[in-house]
Specification:
This protein folds into four domains: about 100 residues; about 230 residues, Glycoside hydrolase family 3 C-terminal domain (Rossmann fold, 3-Layer(aba) Sandwich); about 240 residues, Immunoglobulins (Immunoglobulin-like, Sandwich); about 280 residues, TIM Barrel (Alpha-Beta Barrel). By secondary structure, it is of the alpha/beta class. The strands form eight sheets. The protein has a six-stranded mixed β-sheet, sandwiched between helices. The chain has a six-stranded mixed β-sheet with strand order 20-21-22-23-25-28. A four-stranded mixed β-sheet has the order 9-24-26-27, with no helix packed on it. About 30% of the residues lie in helices and about 15% in strands.
Length: about 1000
């Protein structure tokens, strides 16, 4: 072969490779374009870019600013945020102990504990807050006039302890909860010598974190260490996992051995020792009573948020008298609650993939257990004194041994006297008039707590209706009262809040005939003693005050057999979630026999019946479904529907205008957004996560255009016992959303309303309380505030999501009475709140019984829509779990159930042939109705009038992608043309050279 031919072949091969490369590039670009277009809505939302245009077709005179800010500038708004959080913390921090050490005069203080230098301002996961401008504890105390030991501060921030910090799990549950504290052995001569000068008081901070996706450990034992190994945690036991062998067998909410050593060290050197508890979970605080640790005062501060830490200085200095109250019972032994017997990681026998949790304690959660058992001990009934599992004569159950701080407890720097002046009942509402007088020497605020007791009858015993000895039914916070000043407070109590659910008898709510008691008290235990005094009972652990209780005798009523909101009958909806549906021998805890029915860890058998119930069902088509109208030209826009009631027929005319594709995409692509719907002029929204913060949508990627603010956690807000503080939070969150303008931050995945079933739940910081009544009032107030600014709140996690362990698939089993009275009670005030209620509900990932919450007809359809009359939108939690993706997952009520999927519209959620299936189309239509109803009432409508068109447009990234496509296309064509041209030239050259060679050979032959 000649050199020319070799060269030509090389050119041809390179050209072929070049053409192949261009082809591969074009194919890759095509695939990229396909998926970019497929997921265009979620990409636009993530980037915070508009994929629509708003065109005004009218005269522009219509006022389309429906929700307006109360502030003239961002600085003014943020200043109001900061002031509101500081005042909330002032009212929400709880003084648990004070032996006269507080308030402190201006002086020199020393801070101890690694947590003093790394305060937990919020919780983990979605509860994370912005701390970029938050004060340190040192700065907060210095602002109150205290001088802080600089040597010890440097020890924790720059010195030997600067790298010692607790381990905290992340949003996905990856990680571990381990406390690491700096041992006093690390203190050098400089630290020791500094204590003499800064000796007026020692402040010791203990912190405990909570986070999404994982609960805090109930024991540091071999199983916990093995679990850490499974998750990839290796290393030396002491240095990488726990501080010492002494921590084995302890749990996360106890002090570690090193913390105990630190506290003992401090108590030996300081006359005044104050402990700060920086935890959203109720810690075990028995050490406060032990003389070895010499603690003089203890202030619980929860998670203080961005500026709440300043309230620590305000309270310690006496500028403010503490007025917070506990929202949980603080037991001496955190494991003593009956709910702890069935909590966390349990898997059905016979199946290694079927986790479950059984609420065997029934209604006896938190104080309802401790206080009810106390009354039965006093009355000598129900086998209440027997110690479970102890040999006869080994001692008896004692309230004083069990409870350190009752529900509703909190100290002040002053003394308040409360007098029950009157109680008038009319039309099912009792109005209590209470005079509160400040009998002390400093100004302060007090809380009026009202509790009720229902009769526990023979009928109840026979039919398994449980009654708590005392339950919260009303409360109010006073104004700040100067010494000797008084205030008359009225608290209205709906007798409906004393009703009980009779599942096995009447199958409905009932308010039985008998004697009911209402009482005021300093806390739940004090109120119960007042009731017992009014009943003439002796043998209580403290003298009750007869004058603080009143008896109401009721003839009985069946008025609660129908919904007060819709008039539909109230009937059993959760029999399938009751363990007794699968195990008839199962017994829930009853006050008729405390010791005999006290929960034990239940072994749930994965029978064929259970496994069949767990299987995800695809659903079936409704033979009676008819194809809805689509694409009609009725001339309606969403702005025209802003004040139209949900039941109005005009909504059907509006829905007729939607196309099948619009409905399909609106429902299935709901990840941190709702989509624009051009046919009815509906704008898109951005929905942000985070119970305390809308500063960044996080997983959506949308960064705020105007700075927002981080609030203290919900457990601090509820500890104020002042719902005005919760409403203010909702309003300020709404202001932060309004400030984002065209970004349309109209949805907020909050507030969270699950129950502190145990102290060990990873997300207790973002839930209000162990009590459904208190949680419900604070949740409703937060919603009311946010809705007033046009925010779609998605109250969550509905329902029974009271642990994080295995939350995506755990089967949660309980009885109907407990589900309704404890867990749904927290949601009902918000969901049934009408024009002031929530516009959204976020489902839980767990199963209610064997069925995913979003598919549970009793929960989502019959209770939410039927009994509570909810017209808004129901969204899934993060839709990444298998049971959320059955073909007809919205079948819970033919579209009246789950409406919106919190996902990106990926291939996990597709319905082939949806547009020709009448059943699916009817479901999509009803879901679209609920979504659009919520959007029509939101701030996203700002700028949208009745004559405004919302039309699709290319987002900036799409325009850029189009530009890339054009450039790439031109380059590909040019490159291909150049390659082909070179190949042709090469071939022509080879041909010419070959001809020349042939001619030369012919000439030689001729010669």
């Amino acid at each position: 072969m000649t050199d020319q031919k070799k060269s030509s072949g090389s050119i041809t091969r390179r050209s072929a490779l070049g053409l192949g490369g261009i082809g591969v590039g074009a194919a890759a670009l095509g695939v990229g374009n396909y998926y970019a277009n497929k997921y265009a809505p979620i990409i636009s939302t993530y980037l915070g870019q508009k994929a629509y245009e708003v065109k005004e077709t009218g005269d522009g005179t219509e006022d389309n600013q429906y929700f307006k800010s109360s502030y003239g500038s961002s600085d003014e708004r943020l200043a109001a945020d900061a002031q509101a959080v500081r005042e909330t913390a002032q009212e929400g921090f709880v003084l648990l102990k004070n032996d006269g050490a507080l308030p402190l005069p201006a002086g020199k203080l020393t801070l101890f504990g690694v947590s003093s230098a790394s305060i937990l301002y919020g919780g983990g996961g979605s509860g994370t807050v912005d701390t970029s401008t938050a004060p340190t504890l040192k700065e907060a105390l210095e602002s109150a006039g205290f001088q802080i030991n600089p040597t010890m501060w440097s020890f924790y921030t720059e010195g030997a302890a600067s790298s010692i910090r607790m381990d905290v799990a992340d949003i996905a549950g990856t990680g571990r909860y381990v406390i690491h504290e700096a041992s006093p052995e690390l203190f050098g001569d400089a630290e020791e010598q500094s204590l003499a000068e800064y000796s007026d008081a020692a402040i010791v901070t203990f912190a405990r974190s909570g986070s999404e996706s994982s609960d805090v450990p109930r024991a540091y034992d071999e199983s916990y260490l093995e679990d850490m190994d499974i998750k990839g945690y290796a290393g030396d036991f002491h240095s990488d996992r726990l501080d010492s062998d002494a921590d084995l067998g302890r749990h996360y909410l106890e002090l570690t051995a090193t913390e105990e050593a630190l506290l003992a060290y401090v108590s030996e050197r300081f006359n005044k020792v104050i402990v700060l508890v920086n935890s959203g979970n109720a810690m075990e605080l028995a050490f406060l009573d032990e003389s070895a640790y010499g603690v003089d005062a203890c202030l619980w501060i929860g998670n203080p948020g961005q500026d709440g830490l300043y309230a620590v200085g305000d309270i310690l200095s006496g500028v403010v008298s503490p007025s917070g109250r506990t929202v949980d019972t603080y037991a001496y032994d955190s494991l003593s609650a009956p709910a702890l017997q069935n909590f966390g990681k349990n898997v059905m026998s016979g199946s290694d993939k079927a986790p479950f949790v059984v609420y065997q304690e029934g209604i006896y959660v938190g104080y309802k257990y401790y206080e009810t058992r106390y009354e039965d001990c006093v009355l000598g009934q129900g086998n209440a004194e027997a110690v479970v599992g102890a040999p006869e004569g080994a001692g008896s159950w004692s309230y004083s041994d069990a409870v350190q701080f009752p529900f509703g407890f909190g100290l002040s720097y002053t003394i308040f006297e409360q007098q029950l002046l009157d109680c008038v009942e009319k039309d099912g509402v009792a109005t209590l008039t209470v005079e509160v007088r400040n009998a002390g020497t400093v100004a302060g605020r007090d809380v009026v707590e009202v509790y009720g007791q229902s009769p526990y009858t023979d009928y109840d015993r026979e039919n398994g209706v449980e009654k708590s000895a005392i339950q919260l039914v009303g409360f109010a916070k006073t104004d700040e009262l100067a010494p000797s000043a008084s205030q008359t407070v009225e608290v209205q109590v709906s007798l409906a809040d004393l009703k009980s659910y009779d599942a096995r008898g009447r199958g409905s709510y009932v308010l039985e005939a008998g004697d009911y008691y209402l009482a005021i008290g300093a806390d739940a235990h004090d109120a119960l003693n007042n009731v017992l005094a009014a009943k003439g009972v002796s043998g209580t652990d403290a003298a009750g005050d007869v004058a603080k209780a009143v008896k109401l005798t009721l003839a009985g009523s069946d008025a609660y057999e129908t919904s007060p909101y819709t008039g539909v009958p109230v009937t059993n909806q959760f029999e399938d979630a009751d363990v007794r549906s699968y195990d008839p021998s199962f017994v829930y805890l009853t006050r008729s026999d405390w010791a005999g029915t006290y929960p034990t860890t239940y072994d749930f058998k994965a029978t064929s019946e259970v496994l069949a119930a767990l299987a995800v069902q695809e659903g079936t088509d409704d033979p009676n479904a008819s194809m809805p109208t689509t694409g009609a030209q009725n001339g309606l826009t969403l702005a025209m529907m802003r004040d139209t009631p949900a039941a109005d027929a005009a909504w059907d005319d509006l829905l007729d205008q939607l196309s099948a594709e619009e409905m399909y995409n609106l429902v299935r692509v709901g990840g941190y957004q709702t989509q624009a719907v051009s046919s009815v002029g509906a704008p898109p929204t951005v929905c942000v996560d985070g119970p305390a913060y809308v500063g960044n949508a996080g997983t959506t990627g949308v960064t705020v255009s105007e700075k927002t603010y981080s609030w203290c956690s919900e457990v601090v807000i509820s500890s104020t016992w002042n719902t005005a503080r919760a409403q203010a939070m909702g309003e300020q969150i709404g202001e932060d959303c309004l400030a984002q303008g065209e970004l349309n931050f109209a949805g907020w995945y909050a507030p969270s309303m699950n129950i502190h079933r145990t102290p060990f739940s990873g997300r207790n910081f973002e839930y209000y309380s162990e009590d459904g009544f208190l949680s419900g009032r604070f949740g409703a107030a937060t919603v009311r505030g946010a809705r007033s600014k046009g925010v779609i709140t998605f109250v969550k996690h509905f329902a029974l999501n009271d642990q994080e362990t295995m939350r995506t698939k755990v089967a949660t089993l309980s009885n109907e009475q407990a589900i309704r009275e404890v867990y749904l009670a927290a949601f009902e005030p918000s969901v049934s709140g009408g024009d002031e209620g929530t516009l959204g509900i976020m489902l839980s990932m767990n199963r209610v019984g064997m069925v995913w919450s979003g598919d549970h007809r009793g929960l989502v359809t019959n209770v939410v829509r039927g009994e509570w009359g909810f017209d808004g939108v129901v969204i899934t939690d993060q839709a990444s779990y298998p049971q959320a993706f059955p073909l007809l997952a919205i079948r819970a009520g033919l579209g009246a159930g789950t409406d919106l999927w919190l996902n990106s519209g990926t291939d996990n959620w597709q319905i082939d042939g949806y547009a020709s299936n009448p059943t699916v189309m009817c479901q999509l239509r009803e879901a679209s109705r609920h979504i659009l109803y919520a959007v029509s009432r939101s701030l996203a409508m700002n700028g949208i009038s009745s004559t405004t068109e919302v039309v699709p447009a290319m987002a900036t990234w799409q325009k850029a992608l189009t530009g890339v496509d054009v450039v790439a296309g031109v380059a590909a064509v040019a490159g291909a043309w150049a390659i082909v041209r070179n190949m042709r030239r090469a071939k022509a050259k080879v041909s010419d050279e070959a001809q020349d060679e042939t001619d030369e050979k012919n000439e030689e032959v001729e010669a």
